[in-house]
Amino acid sequence: MLKGRLGLETARIPHADRHGLIWLERGELCVIDGCLHFAAGKNSLTPHVLQVPHQAVSMILLGPGSSVTHDALRLLARHGTLMAAVGQDGVRTYTAPPLLPDRSDVARRQAELWGAPRRRISVARHMYALRLGEVLPHRDLDTLRGIEGSRVKAIYRLMAEKYGIVWEGRHYDRSNPTTADIPNQAINHAATAVQGAAAIAVQALAAIPQLGFIHEDSGQAFVLDIADLFRDTITLQIAFSAAQKALSGNTDSIDRLVRREASMVFRKQSVIAAMIDKIKLVLRTEEADGVGNDRDP
């Protein structure tokens, strides 16, 4: 990427100031008169074309039955807008072309911290402190996970009481997720949405998704780390609010209710901007005019 070429670099709206995710399905993402559009219902009696504000959103999620043109990909890349092909109701992610970064300072800092075992556990303890509200003396990751797990169970119960929902525990069958009760399904969908927001924040800073400090095996380990920082305040808020509506007689599907709730919460609480700030805090990276200044945790 050539920084500043044709003024495109300065023309981009920072992801911290964008509106997050937009969901499109069963249509074609294309360029008409230099602008991004989504043409849907071509073979129906009511075809329609929507103009997509690609500079004002961070990621476009393309659902089943969708296609994308070369011109559309070029326009998205030019403005730093991400795109992902997802499954029905967003329960699977098939592919997402990377946002090509113009910087490497955050990635180098992350690799430096991750590559040193003592620094890695220090960052993990810092992340647990942000989640639990206190610095735990333990340095064993399994012990920290056990403590966090017991507290999460208590938070589930408290959130269920707050929203007047009967809570029978966290249950999730990966092979058949629809067998779970409404609150558990809502948590699954909300977690997917928050992970999508975390992926945007990680890519916006050009951090390395695979190098997690708490999660280890996933190819999105650092994304999961950041998403977990917002589980209590954002994920469960979205999930239990949507579950409350579903259990109160709203006829919309639970995934639709969660998506609407997530869209509102992301916008009102500037979730992606907050995630970007959290990443800087976790990696101890202060930025000014695109330059990172490091200090050890």
Automatic annotation (TrEMBL):
Keywords: Antiviral defense, DNA-binding, Endonuclease, Hydrolase, Magnesium, Manganese, Metal-binding, Nuclease. InterPro entries: Cas1, CRISPR-assoc_Cas1, CRISPR-assoc_Cas1_C, CRISPR-assoc_Cas1_ECOLI, CRISPR-assoc_Cas1_N. Its EC number is 3.1.-.-. Its cofactor is Mg(2+); Mn(2+). GO terms for biological process: defense response to virus; maintenance of CRISPR repeat elements. GO terms for molecular function: DNA binding; DNA endonuclease activity; hydrolase activity; metal ion binding. It comes from the Bacteria. It is an enzyme of class 3 (hydrolase). Mn(2+) binds at residues 148, 215, 228. Belongs to the CRISPR-associated endonuclease Cas1 family. Homodimer, forms a heterotetramer with a Cas2 homodimer. CRISPR (clustered regularly interspaced short palindromic repeat), is an adaptive immune system that provides protection against mobile genetic elements (viruses, transposable elements and conjugative plasmids). CRISPR clusters contain spacers, sequences complementary to antecedent mobile elements, and target invading nucleic acids. CRISPR clusters are transcribed and processed into CRISPR RNA (crRNA). Acts as a dsDNA endonuclease. Involved in the integration of spacer DNA into the CRISPR cassette. NCBIfam families: cas1_ECOLI (TIGR03638). This is CRISPR-associated endonuclease Cas1.
